[in-house]
From TrEMBL:
Gene3D superfamilies: Nucleotide-binding domain of ferredoxin-NADP reductase (FNR) module, Translation factors
Protein species of origin: Frieseomelitta varia
Pfam families: FAD_binding_6, NAD_binding_1
UniProtKB keywords: FAD, Flavoprotein, Oxidoreductase
MF-aspect GO terms: FAD binding; oxidoreductase activity
UniProt keyword annotation of Oxidoreductase present: yes
Name of the protein in its database record: FAD-binding FR-type domain-containing protein
Top-level lineage group: Eukaryota
Length: 410
């Protein structure tokens, strides 16, 4: 393997000088972003202009850096990427059209940056359906792929989805989900340049009925990533509590995937999913009890008589039993319908007077998948008491969307 370019060092505050590092084999060329200590890349967008020109967009917390690569020779599309979920470093591997070593990469052009990332313009691209796998009669896993574009959506952020029909302007936010959390669960036809969406079909849904009915090779439009959630904010915590109401589970999946890859996470504790009935929860064994760091609890409010697990509605007493008292090394993520969120927030904040709430930042939803018209806000609240951060709470206000098992009712 050849390593032909050494890039200049970059100061922590000088994002515009970040370049794409590269190395090669006889058959491939591998690109990666040279990370800096205090500013890690959150996501990427990669666009094929021609087979010898690539446009990289590197997404940071508050800025997007653009680089256009004019390559020495042509490559094949699409690339394959490998993402280290602990360091967030990504490597893109492109096959060369001609099997020979390159004497140099070509040249790079820094084409500017987008500073106001929270208000960035939505750019829609056409995606083709690779697979539309029903998990039940209500929930589908939709796998899509763009022709000349690849994006790695930052953890906790979302994309806007709309129909391919230009006469219809119905759009909804959806959080991309990991295709699988265990190798045995890899969906059919999935490749790393795909995006996966979990779709709940609603009888009167204006978009969900269209999405769940899509056939292979049909098209739809997805936007670039939106939102402002930064998972790295929570890397200091070694214990993670999660509370999910209905399909509030969906935004949690990429957080679970990242946490399972981090060596510093000692426990994913009491992942609790609140549902009405057993047939309404989906949590594969691959992310369940087989993981030594993880405890999963299902709580049903309308169980059958054969249900032997926990039952009841979300309440302060129940949450106190599940989450317990504050810990300096613990954080709590909650996601669910509006009433669920109000009760969860009331419980967690009840131990602290108002002046102990350090910040309260309201941003556009970090990613939900709904088919009703509502105001979508995420409520990111940090509680501090005598300096150490006691709890972090990520709250997403959304209607109750129910997951369904492959096995149906029971």
């Amino acid at each position: 393997m050849f390593q032909l370019i050494a890039l200049e060092s970059t100061s922590d505050g000088d994002l515009s000088s970040i370049k794409m590092d590269w190395r090669q084999t006889i058959d491939t060329v591998i690109f990666s972003c040279k990370s800096i200590y205090s500013r890690r890349c959150l996501g990427y967008e990669l666009t094929l202009i021609t087979n010898s020109r690539l446009l990289f967009k590197i997404i940071f917390e508050d800025e997007i850096i653009k680089h256009e690569l004019h390559l020495r020779s042509e490559i094949e599309w699409p690339p394959i990427y490998n993402r280290n979920l602990e360091t967030l470093k990504v490597e893109f591997t492109c096959a060369k059209r001609e099997r020979r070593p390159w004497m140099n990469l070509g040249h790079q052009i820094t084409s500017g940056s987008d500073v106001n990332i929270s208000g960035r313009l939505k750019i829609y691209r056409e995606y083709r359906v690779i697979a539309n796998e029903p998990l039940s009669n209500q929930v589908h896993l939709l796998i899509v792929q763009a022709k000349d574009h690849l994006q790695i959506v930052p953890i906790g952020r979302h994309v806007m989805v709309k129909e391919a029909d230009i006469n219809k302007n119905i759009q909804r936010p959806y959080t991309p989900v990991p295709p699988y959390l265990h190798d045995d669960d890899k969906p059919p036809n999935y490749t790393p340049n795909c995006l996966c969406l979990m779709i709940k079909k609603y009888p009167n849904g204006l978009l969900s009925r269209f999405l769940t009915a899509l056939k292979v090779d049909q098209t739809l439009y997805l936007s670039n990533s939106m939102g402002s959630f930064v998972m790295g904010t929570y890397d200091r915590y070694s214990v993670i509590h999660m509370l999910a109401g209905g399909t509030g589970l969906t935004p949690m999946l990429s957080i679970i995937e990242r946490a399972m890859a981090r060596r510093s996470v000692s426990e994913i504790n009491k992942f609790t999913q609140f549902q009405h009935k057993r047939r309404e929860y989906v949590l594969r064994e691959a992310i369940g009890e087989s993981q030594w760091r993880e405890v999963i609890i299902h709580i049903l409010s309308q169980p059958k008589s054969t249900w032997t697990g926990k039952r009841g509605m979300v309440s302060e007493g129940l949450l106190n039993n599940l989450v317990g008292k504050s810990q300096p090394d613990a954080c709590v993520f909650t996601c669910g319908p509006r009433n669920f969120m109000q009760i969860a927030r009331t419980h967690i904040s009840s131990e602290y007077p108002e002046y102990h709430i350090l910040t309260a930042v309201y941003n556009e939803c970090c990613g939900i998948h709904v088919d009703t018209v509502q105001t979508h806000m995420s409520d990111l609240i940090r509680f501090e008491k005598m300096n150490p951060v006691v709890f972090n709470v990520l709250q997403l206000a959304l209607p109750c969307n129910n997951w369904v098992t492959k096995d149906g009712d029971s």
